[in-house]
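RETRY 2/3 - previous attempt timed out on the joint model. Re-submitting the same 345-residue input unchanged.
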Amino acid sequence: MKSALFDYTLRLGDSSLIIGHRLSEWCGHGPVLEQDIALINIALDLVGQAKSFLEYAGKVEAKGRDEDALAYHRIDRDFRNILLAEQPNEDFAFTIIRQFLFDAFQYPFYQRLAKSKDPQLAAIAQKSLKEVTYHLRFSSEWTIRLGDGTPESHEKMQTAINELWAFTGELFEMTETDEILIEHGIAIDLNEIKPIWEQKVKAIFKEATLEIPTTNWMQSGGKKGIHTEYLGFILAEMQYLPRAFPDAKW
Amino acid sequence: MSKKNWPLWEVFIRSKQGLNHKHVGSLHATDEQMAIENARDVYTRRMEGVSIWVVESKHIHASSPTEQSELFEPANDKVYRHPTFYDIPDEIGHM
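RETRY 2/3 succeeded.
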């Protein structure tokens, strides 16, 4: 039960950390100043959520690892983030679609996690929910704006959806960890989240004149530590400084 | 991507209930919804506000600097418009 809780908390922390890091790569590269700041605000929210989850994961594990040790001193196989989070930014369309698919999951998920029987997870979810509400609003509006925009923006958005769709199945994949924790009223049954997510995605895509791909094949692995080739490169950049200078301080 | 800039908007923030909206700066956005969200991200990151107004800059009509003399200078020698000729009781304090 303790190792399941550790695994579960890591998954939540790692997903927020990695997608937050991805967004932070836009810093100084945003299409316009205002959107640069908006993306980085969201990145900071997500990294903040990751900090709370990883700090708690360290306490659950009780081996003296804090959030920094977990973020900076684990190898890719030990990361439990979903694969969607680590997919590259590519262009603004990819970034927005990745974020929208993620936000549309996080919002109903945190709503339920806020009522988890684990008080710490519930508190983090409660605190994060307001942030996620804004993230979803931001990514939904950009999805509509670009999907229902010019022929060029529409095509870029549809391409992004087609490329990223195979990573959405993993959002609802459950492992032994989920089963153990659902029994204790701690984890959320992802089968409950799926129809809510689908409904949201359908509604926004419809307004955005975008189509849901018909392929059924889904990539998975992140929740078990099997990642796409991108994660290694993210970690190389993210972990370089604390590994090269372990006692570095601000 | 076209190099044409998005329209410019002026941003007004109310810092507390009961206070006026004050001009804080400007930004670019394609429509009013985006202008409010951009204003939220650019100008209220440090709890600066409880309410945002945005108005497209082109809708603002300004007085011209060349008209300064006729608009404002006539008020210069009319000190009686300030309530400085009354004795204010000490209890009132600052006015």
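The two ends of chain B are 56 Å apart (CA to CA). Closing ticket.
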